[in-house]
Design goal:
mainly alpha, two-stranded antiparallel sheet, 2 strands
Length: about 190
């Protein structure tokens, strides 16, 4: 019985985390179920990592899977298609996994306390359009200048943005916070 309760607890947390990412409306019908199934299958691996390199490898694997298997919803206006469905971007994949891991590890402390405290500094900051715009305004980068939304973020741009977040943490917060704490702070600051 306890294992069933644990499994259901994890499913509920993943559902809440996916909802928290505010990305459900972006993807075509049926995608959220695929995403939740994938997360339920791989979350234990994320909760039991030993090194930052393992985390980075698992993160890349998830984003690569996501960009090959998840499509955006077709958008219509006045009965006309204004944006065709396409495979999700690395930025969209990154936002989903970054928020799910933030909820599971940082907010819910699902791994044991020792593993969570070791893992939290490895987690990437979630990037939304407002954080993207703020970083673009404050940092000059030819790589990110082409990205207007997270839909425009490819793997190289995503990695550049994570470096910018780490640079800003050192500059603005004396290196005393993690990227997940940074995105909490910036999200509140930019959305209020």
């Amino acid at each position: 019985m306890k294992s069933k309760a644990k499994k259901v607890k994890m499913q509920n947390i993943i559902e809440m985390a996916v909802s928290f990412s505010a990305m459900q409306r972006v993807f075509e019908k049926g995608s959220i179920e695929k995403i939740k199934a994938k997360l339920n299958n791989c979350i234990d691996e994320f909760l039991n990592l030993s090194t930052k390199q393992e985390y980075q490898r698992k993160h890349k694997e998830f984003c690569a899977w996501f960009t090959r298997n998840i499509r955006t919803a077709e958008r219509k206006k006045d009965g006309r298609i204004i944006k065709r469905s396409q495979y999700a971007s690395w930025g969209q994949a990154g936002k989903v996994i970054d928020i799910v891991l933030k909820v599971c590890i940082y907010y819910c402390n699902l791994a044991c306390a020792e593993v969570s405290s070791k893992t939290i500094p490895w987690l990437n900051g979630a990037i939304d359009s407002r954080i993207l715009k703020d970083l673009k305004k404050r940092y000059n980068s030819s790589i990110i200048s082409q990205a207007s939304t997270i839909e425009d973020i490819d793997k190289a741009t995503y990695e550049e943005l994570q470096q910018m977040i780490n640079t800003d943490i050192k500059k603005s917060f004396n290196g005393e916070i993690s990227p997940v704490q940074y995105d909490d702070i910036k999200w509140r600051e930019l959305n209020r």
